[in-house]
Amino acid sequence: MKNVYGCTLEDLEEYFLGIGSKKFHAMQLFSWLYEKRIESYSEVTNIKKELLDALEKEYSIERLKIVDIQEDTDVCKYLFELFDGEHIEAVLMRHDYGNSICISSQVGCNMGCRFCESGRRKKVRNLETYEMVLQLLMIEKLLGERISHVVVMGIGEPFDNYDNLIHFFQIINHPKGLAIGARHITVSTCGLVPKIEEFSDFPLQINLAISLHAPTNELRDSIMPINKVYPLDKLIPTIKRYLDKTNRRVTFEYILLKDINDSCECAEELAHLIKGINCYVNLIPYNETNNLEFKRTNTIQIMRFYDILKKNNVNVTIRKEFGGNISAACGQLRSKKEEL
Ligand code: SAH
């Protein structure tokens, strides 16, 4: 059954018009859902009961279950149970600039990045739009505080679930929806070139992050299978076109893996590869997991890598780390059931 949290305002307008009713009910309903945060249609007082009964037959208003919560300083991980019994995770991070949430976009992931724990389980299915919206809405409720920033960097490849992702953005960005500013939303992709192309026509100013992780095809092929489909000589020109079209800035994520992609030579090659691109590089200290053999680069080498990029006038930051103690760090999200 469809769920009302997967509807954009336009979807609801179409629904009400389609049953011979009035378009403005859509806005009324949106305000009940996202301003007053109702949990049952019976709380709605300005739409007729027959209309609400018909709506309920078409769109459930049921929320997901949160079946486990693990907390650490400044970070909290939530395990959601979906209606078909699958599980996904979302992580809340408390920054000095506000609360940020990292949400999942798929059950499992097919991209097969060698260093990523989340991708060890193949994709089971895409998340529906409502399953993404509810991660945000429900955590906000539990927290009793506003979530101001959203990153789509949990389990899954968001651009492999493009249409649902776009609807999710439209709902959370809408001023009468969750009203999260586009500049406070970031989507991260391993580099699905046709979707980056398509995203350059999307009107909202959402931030794009690219999981780059290697400066040459040879190296990238060896850790990210997607590079065989969309190699750097396709990816980089696509990003340049995206930037020309949108006038935005892109973030390159670069995990530092000991003795794999962390040499000073790699840093020079990286600086050369992205020369002239309006970008930030976010260096990510690798989070080791029990199941994978990759190791974290030591701090001295991280700083050397950083300095080389700086010297080449690259805007570079080292990612603040969250959630290592509760397996909530980047690439560590997997459902409880899988860990057993
Ligand atoms: N599929 C998307 C989004 C999910 S991964 C993507 O590839 O961008 C989010 C980020 O975490 C990616 O940059 C990913 O490469 C990184 N990541 C994966 N495993 C990690 C680990 N163990 N330590 C640090 N970062 C990791």
Question: Would you spell out the secondary-structure blueprint of this structure?
Answer:
Elements: E1 2-3, H1 9-18, H2 24-34, H3 49-58, E2 59-60, E3 65-72, E4 75-81, E5 87-95, E6 98-102, E7 106-107, E8 125-126, H4 129-143, E9 149-152, H5 162-173, E10 185-189, H6 193-199, E11 207-211, H7 217-223, H8 226-229, H9 232-246, E12 250-256, H10 264-273, E13 279-285, H11 299-311, E14 315-318, H12 336-339
Parallel strand pairs: 1-2, 6-9, 9-10, 10-11, 11-12, 12-13, 13-14
Antiparallel strand pairs: 3-4, 4-5, 5-6, 7-8
Helix pairs in contact: 1-2, 4-5, 6-9, 10-11
The protein binds S-adenosyl-L-homocysteine.
Largest sheet: 10 strands, mixed
Please give the order of strands in the largest beta sheet: 3-4-5-6-9-10-11-12-13-14
What form results from the Cα inertia axes?
globular
Please tally the β strands and state the result: 14
For this structure, the quaternary state is single chain
Distance between the termini: 30 Å
- Following the backbone from N to C, one meets helices and strands in this order, namely EHHHEEEEEEEHEHEHEHHHEHEHEH
Bound heterogens, unique: S-adenosyl-L-homocysteine
Helix content: 25-40%
Q: Provide mean pLDDT, rounded.
A: 94
